[in-house]
User: Fold this.
Amino acid sequence: MKTDFSTFRDEVSPGFFRKFRYLIWLLVTNIIFTTNIPYPNGFKVWILRTFGAKIGQKVVIKPWVKIKFPWNLTLGDHVWLGEEVWIDNISMVTIQSHVCISQGALIITGNHNYTKSYFPLITKPIFIEEGVWVCAKAIVTGGVTLKNHSVLSLGCIATKDLDSYYIYGNFPLEKIKPRTISSI
Assistant:
């Protein structure tokens, strides 16, 4: 057997309305989000809510943030999205409060089943619990939960759940040490 892309079916955005809504979103995101123009956070939040995102209070969205489908996004209070964060959310992405997603991180819910000739799309939601830090250039894959106050270190890839209050790093990914937090 060989891979045969001619038989691939786009199951993500069928129908005229969904394609039209996505086209409008692409126009808006290229003007407001993927730019150096420092639009106010409140304006960006309003735009995302207009397109169906559920967003809490005091969210910070830096320039060049890419969000595939805002209607598949929930952000809690005090979430920080750093420069060039890419939320490729074909499935739902839920990010609870007090989470930092640092520069260049990738949150990606989609993948492909490479064992099938027609290369079907696989999508799984991502859940990021309160107090998590996804460091710069890290990747979170579909079906993963990052539990309370876990840390995914610089450039690492989470393909499985991370335990609460642990720092993860290296390749392959491993628990490095417990995370302790001080108020001082």
Notes: The first strand starts at residue 54 and ends at 55. The CA atoms of residues 113 and 120 lie 6 Å apart. The first helix runs from residue 16 to 32.
